[in-house]
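My convention is simple: the sequence line spells out the residues, with the fold written below as integer tokens. I include a record here:
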Amino acid sequence: MTGILFIVGSSRSGSTLLERLLNELPGVVSVGELQRVWRRGFVENQLCSCGQPFHDCAFWGEVRGRLAAGGDLDAVAADRLSRRVYKAGLRRTKATDDQAAFGRHWQHLFTAIAEVSGARWLVDSSKTPQHAAQLAGLPGFDTRYLHLVRDPRAVAFSKMRRRLRPEIHWMESYMATRSAGASAASWNTTQRLAERMRRQIDRPWMRLRYEDLAADPRRALATVVETLGLPVDADTGLGFLSGPIAQVQVGHSVSGNPMRFQHGDLRIAADDEWRRAMPARSRFEVALRCWRGLRRYGYTGNGAQPTG
């Protein structure tokens, strides 16, 4: 049975780094923020992380061919349907026509990706709890979950910065920005949903802090493999890591941080620019709004550790 590892968490939490590293494990392929593939890939033809427009990418071309052969290539309909289903939040209503059609679309897509890649495990870094929850019982797939957490002050600072989106290859476009307060509210909501989801679904689950991944990627990945029971030999499967340097190959992920376009030597280091450059008022606002999460996940005090 093919496995799907869903990364759940807030945006700008380091999921692109994590999925790039997971993609190097034997038998694992990461496809990025798959929730956005219908619109950004099939419809808008944005760049795949291999550098080619989605429609010109050989990998996604094979996936599209398999979907077309099965009569399931109406990406606009799949995107609209998925958005409707996500409005139900974490609650899955199997009896509805929408839910049944939603399951078929995603089952066909994941099956095509598995067949083209030949991978035993697929990584979906969409992060949205609603997306991951609605696919928890996808027939024919073994689903497992990795809750990625990052300091909300770092997340807010990242969202305050204006960054180019290279995947929009036909015009100059930038990633959306948010105020510190809006970022804090979004971070809180995402963590609450993720924690509710952990209690609600009976599937293997692990929490990982971005800061721990950046500090010791080998140890973090070995823990992921062991805790989630991934069929990977951590001793030999992590050979692409040499200290803070990872040898990463060209991948085929859709959507995510611009670093997904890098390959070769990838230096892993914590992005803590927020500690020096984030306005004190914004930092205080986020800390005040997110103090429960800061305490819960070990971001307060000296040497604090996450709880729960």
Q: What stands out?
A: The two ends are 31 Å apart (CA to CA). Strands lie at 2-9, 28-30, 121-127, 141-149, 205-209, 241-242, 245-248, 264-267. The longest helix spans residues 97-117.
